[in-house]
Amino acid sequence: MLGRAVDDISTGSDSEYSNSWISWFLSSKGNEYFCEVEEDYILDRFNLTGLNNEVSNYAQALDLITDNLDDDIQDELRGALDVQARLLYGLIHARWIVTARGLAKMLDKFKRVDFGRCPRVLCQSQPLLPVGLSDTPYEKSVKLYCGRCEDVYSPKSSRHGSIDGAYFGTSFPHLLFLVYPSLLPPKTGPVDSTPTSRSIENDSSRKSRRVKEEPEISESLGETGSTASVALKAERYRPRIYGFQLNETAKLQRWQEAVRDRQILRLEALEDLS
After folding, report:
1. DSSP states of 89-140 as a string?
2. Coil, strand or helix: which one is 163?
3. Largest separation between any pair of C-alpha atoms in the chain
4. What are φ and ψ of residue 223, in 5° steps?
């Protein structure tokens, strides 16, 4: 499904091919998330190591991106090569945006709020950043990461929602905040990654009182399972850079999960009593 959606993203006339392929691609509707990859980066073959195994007709797709494709074969193969050229440019783009110059270009788009704002009310319209849930093409579509609530959201536009997440990679937004720490938004509520035992007990006691005061929550889940089982199935996004979870975020999430596990034990005890 994602592959078909990527193949369908082509909104340009033949006259637009008189300009460079990259400018045509960036001006096409649905490609607003992308930034321009500098030509010298694309022409440095070291930066493209391994991509020849990911893209069919790699050499011709690269020639099309750099406007060096032979005119004799351009007309008969343009449709098929456009698909491969978009795939190749997207994979190059994922590598480019984690370089110093690429981060600077994406920073400009972030400041212009080109990627939209967080739909969560308490995030107070925090600007978002694109992120992939996988670095492998055709697996997951692009999502939008909020640095305030540290969660991911689907793009509002179906055009943007069909972009392959591998074109941005799993590391980009977290690396951007690492390079530009002043952009990291403040969190609402406690942010200490190593809270005291008293604060943990107070937080747990407040949650347990809330469960006692709101018994209808567990009753409403009678058909789908217990509250504890539903809580155990809940997934959360884990920020990573090149596969490694961020240190401070990892410590905070381990503490949050420890609190959640204790709360689940209390929920199971309450369900056993009922």
Report:
1. HHHHHHHHTTSHHHHHHHHHHHHTTTT-B---GGGTS-BEEEE-S-SSTTS-
2. coil
3. 79
4. -80, -35
